Amino acid sequence: MNDTSPAATRLLLVDDHPLVRDGLRVRLEAVLGFAVIGEAGNADEAIALAAAHQPDLVLMDVGMNGMNGITLAAVFHERFPDIRVLMLSMHDNVEYVTQAVRAGASGYVLKDSPATEIIRAISAVLDGQTFFSAGLGVRMIEASAALTPLARLTPRERDILDALAEGLSSKQIAQRNGLSVRTVETHRLNLKRKLDIDGQAELIKFAVEHRSKK
After folding, report:
1. What domains can be seen in the chain, in order of their start residue?
2. For 13, 82, 125, 208, which has the most beta carbons within 10 A of its beta carbon?
3. Is-contact 56 34, C-beta < 8 A?
């Protein structure tokens, strides 16, 4: 039986194949400290379950019917920035991985990976790190080296960076974008992490210097 204690890591599984979800659930619920709190077969179900249960992490398939996993990852990043997203896929295409990271995913694991690798990926992502399946990591480092820090930001993060350049507070940014103040604050933390910036003053200085030209 899975651990449903308050301290358990709460996981949401998103895949349009029930057999895949069943296999994942069995593997993950065998790990002490993991609790699968829901399963979704499409984007609408995933969003509803995330809003209702606030999982710590969602394991999300890339190739789903309807809204694909990469687009859904971007929705999660905007609406639920506190929830970490770990992509699962049968495709080892670096372009898919790059798109997923730009959408806000914190990791990308191949579906045929051993359970131990998926568990390591979950732990790493929850610790604020990124994780890629063996073989993908080196190729992603090479691809990322060509990207500027700004190119690594999601569209929502870029919008918030521009708002900071305008001198708006978190409350004002939240009102403008229909977000909660907590969500904006989480995006600001993610910006500092991605841009390797420590303080708020440095973040605002960077925002002013790199404001989008509209």
Report:
1. 9-145 (3.40.50.2300), 150-209 (1.10.10.10)
2. 13
3. no
Residue 200, Cβ neighbours under 10 Å: how many?
A: 11
Residue type, 129: Q
Q: What is the pLDDT along the chain (214 residues), one digit of tens a residue?
A: 455 555 789 999 999 999 989 998 998 988 888 999 999 999 999 999 999 999 999 999 998 888 899 999 999 988 998 999 999 988 877 778 888 888 889 989 988 888 889 999 999 999 888 888 876 655 555 555 445 677 777 788 888 999 999 999 999 999 988 888 988 998 888 888 888 888 888 888 888 888 876 5
Question: Whole-angstrom Cα distance, residue 35 to residue 3?
Answer: 5
Which residues lie below 8 Å from residue 210, measured CB to CB, with a gap of 6+?
150, 161, 165
Total-model pTM? 0.69
Whose structure tokens read 């971007």?
Answer: 74
